[in-house]
Amino acid sequence: MECPVCGSDCVRTAPEIMSDLPTRFLPCAECSMRVLDKRAPLSALEYAEPCSCGKRFIDEVFAHMYVIMREEGDLSPRDPLIAVGSPLIHPGFAMDLPPFLPAKSLLLLSGKVQEKAARRIVAEVPEVRGVVKTAAFVPGLISHDLNAVPRVYTLLAGCDVRADIYPLATGPLVVYKQQSLIHIEFPRAGYPKLRSVVAHVGKPPVPFFVDAFSGPGTLGLAAACLGVPHVVMNDAWYASAFWSAFNLEVNRVYFDVDKVQIYGQVRDMARHPVAREPVKIAETTGRQVIEVYQGDFLNLDRVIPKDAHPVAALDIFDKNDRNGVSAMLRDWQGRMGGDVFVP
Questions:
Q1: 225: which of 147, 168, 303, 313 is 20 to 30 A away, CA to CA?
Q2: Furthest-apart CA atoms within the chain: distance in Å
Q3: Contact at 8 Å (CB) between 132 and 160?
Q4: Collapsing DSSP states into helix, strand and coil, what is residue 125?
């Protein structure tokens, strides 16, 4: 599959990405492991090269990036190793042990890195697929108030598309996203949101499921994997709606569909980053109907049949605002009926 961001072949379908996952982050017999103190500066500006198998322990990869950032003046001699930034593994899943990284398996998020060092890191550190400059905010549209101004991080070098993997009884769900545009939600042990969807979908599955704040589509895709005949995914933020659509194609092997049709492309959608009226971004043909919209979730009554009585997941960002959440649930139920829950 062609990556919609960099145009290369850095994205793969769910079966392809799962084919080598059992051994992807495991060392070979010759791999070495040097555990470094993340809270202290690197004692010597040196690092080990990757093993002959092409992998390197994550601490050694951080040492390599630390040396480059020191050389370019992005870090001082007093900065600890952890100041390099935050690693996002590709593909991401709940790991029991720190990984040995193969090529293009790490995305670096850093508040200190500048463009020159970022370009060197992507060019010289084989494990790194991209470098993103972060700031003190969460990227994307993080409020149900569509008048809020969304903000994004900056991709300095490489590609910031990566995937997370979520286990389902029907097979592992693979969810891609462009990480500079969408907030980080790394898979948690136990996968509580997925368990909530499984419980509400039931057996046999409910006839209609809505993922009203879809993000890159995890909950709606899970409902489709579980066999729900009609699924609607929706998000007002363009990047979320696009990646919900893209992930339909990534996981299509799990769906009872003939074709996935994607109408929106991420660069075109960026011209209208927040939508109020529902715009169809993608749909499937076949026995199972899956649709993706970009728009205000409260306007979905314009595209969902009045007699659908859907089960709806409202994965609201600020769940601590209990009064606001309760009001949203009441508003939704008054418009749509059916069952609504916050995963």
A1: 303
A2: 68
A3: yes
A4: coil
For the four alpha carbons of 143, 144, 149 and 153, in that order, the dihedral sign comes to positive
Start-end of CATH 3.40.50.150 domains in the chain:
191-341
Q: What is the pLDDT of residue 323?
A: 80
Token pair for residue 160? 């910031």
**Cβ-based neighbours of 221, under 8 Å, separated by 6 or more:** 173, 175, 233, 244, 247, 248, 251
Give the position of tokens 């769900």: 173
Q: Which two tokens stand for residue 20?
A: 């080598």
Do you find a cis peptide bond into 273, omega within 30 degrees of 0?
Answer: no
CA distance 139 to 173: 24
- Do residues 2 and 24 touch, judged by C-beta distance below 8 A? no
Tell me the whole-structure pTM to 2 decimals: 0.93
Q: Is 178 exposed, middle or buried (0-12, 13-18, 19+ CB in 10 A)?
A: buried
Confidence label for 150 from pLDDT (cuts 50, 70 and 90): confident
Is the link from the previous residue into 91 a cis peptide, with omega within 30 of 0?
Answer: yes
Question: CA of 107: how far to CAs of 85, 167, 215, in Å?
Answer: 10, 22, 19
Q: What is the pLDDT of residue 148?
A: 76
235 neighbors 214 (Cβ within 8 angstroms): yes
Residue 224: pLDDT above 70?
Answer: yes
Tokens of 156: 């300095």
Using alpha carbons, select from 161, 134, 121 the residue that is nearest to residue 9. 161
- Is the pLDDT at 305 greater than 80, yes or no? yes
CATH numeric code, 191-341: 3.40.50.150
Which amino acid type is present at position 245? A
pLDDT in tens, 159-218: 999 999 999 999 999 999 999 999 887 666 678 899 999 999 999 999 999 999 999 999
Task: Please give the residue that has the higher pLDDT: either 95 or 144.
Answer: 95
DSSP state of 170: T
Helix, strand and coil content of the chain, in percent to the nearest 5, comes to 30, 20, 50
